[in-house]
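Service request form, structural biology core

Requester: graduate student, group of Dr. S.
Request type: structure prediction, single chain
Budget code: on file
Notes: please return the result as structure tokens.

Sequence provided:
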Amino acid sequence: MANELIMNVTPGETRIARLEDGILSELSIERDSELQVAGNIYHGRINRVLPGMQAAFVDIGLEKAAFLYVADVVSDLFSGMYDDDVDEIGKNGDNSNSQGEEDTNEEADTETEATDPKTSGNKDARYPHNNRFRNQRQPRHRRPPLPRIEDVVKEGQSIVVQVAKEPIRTKGARVTCHISLPGRYLVYMPTVNHVGVSRRINSYEERTRLKEVLRKNKPAAGGFIARTSCVGASEEKLVADMQDLKDTWQKIYEKQEKTKPPSLLHADLDIVLRAARDNLSGEIERLVIDSKEHHHDTKKFISEFMPDLANRVEFYNRDTPIFDAYGIESEINRALGKKIWLKSGGYLIIDSSEALTSIDINTGRFVGKKDFEETVLTTNLEAVEEISYQLKLRSIGGIIIIDFIDMNRYAHRMRVYHTLKEALRRDRVKTTISKISDLGLVEMTRKRTRDSLTQMLSTTCEHCQGTGFVKTPITVAFETFREIKRVFGSITSRSLLLRTNPKVAKILFNEGRNRLEQIERQIGKRIVIESDEKFHLEQYEIRGRNI
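Core staff response, request fulfilled:
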């Protein structure tokens, strides 16, 4: 089946689904009330320097101050960002290493040096890279310690930064001084002198060709990374993209010279055009959109920048909602649940908390055929593929603990581990994993770039307050007994009215009846029970009743 981008545009909300072989693999949602700022470039001001955290707060004009780490201020060479050939930089301006932490040791054949701010059009130290380390190639794993944040930036200093990570819940955006401008084929980094190629380009000949083209044509200041869409692109197209990105950066620089912080210098494309630019390539065979206006704009954008792909953009004009027609709506609802069934009959339980996400694997209805160990292995292997899929679909980030079904055979544990490792290679977000422990656990991290799907589409239950449980009717019944004893003295009427949920009322009328009569004798008041269908299970009301 085809790999497609399906776009659903409604007033105030845009949803974009990426289908791989007809299966939903990624989902992006943007609402007018929650516009994304990742990739935007701002002229900001240092509000506060935090020596104890090696960071600073930057006012960029958003509701919450942005957070700037010292490693995002000093030169890229110093922080070691580009020691290896890098992955493609996406819309968030982050290097997404899909290889996993154990695969980052390949030998690099690129050159990097910090760019002098003066030669890149920089004044007033708005790009405060630590020049002491310029032109010093540091041996791998022997980099000098990071400088102190107070030696790099000062309160009140103006600075140009790019949003690397969206604001998440109570946290402000994370910003960086390492600016990256994505184009059709290339990513331009005006503050470092670097040439790199996406790791997803596997051909040695193509990688070599692209590096030669970039080294031959790049300016003295700034660096470029070849994106996966570069494969097969002519030198003329690459040079044209290079020039467009340089012109964009020049406009940004000229604008920051004329504005006072905080101010927006450059906004990335809207979500529709951004998705088309970043995803429409040889892998995506069709882009289908249900908005005539956005279809026109996208067609025009593709015709101008990717004319050879313009025929892949289609307008959806049917009565059935587009996400229903492609089976996406049901997959979204499935992704909001805690329990995910596997084809074999096993299932996953995905439970997220503030600190981490836990994934528990169970055999469920699957009983296998002969060997119990083979049954466990089959379930764990099937779970690996589903876990990789759910992590991407739900946009789960942070610490993740996977509790596999215990495997006694070492060969089985290693097979499951390597299968998981291989599945995560296809994830465009950086992940790191540990081997399966003696307890059958895998500890892993996945870079958090935005709120998870659950956080975007749901809120804490107003009844259970996020616990996932409510009290039983008999528990609530006993609570009403205790509450009656607390309040009866303040009620002057000769009888009390207890209004409660019908399930609790049933308990009070039956097994709680004797206990209720004892309380009536103790307090000297009659208690009248009244059920109300509108009451939540844990809700009840006690007040005086006039006879």
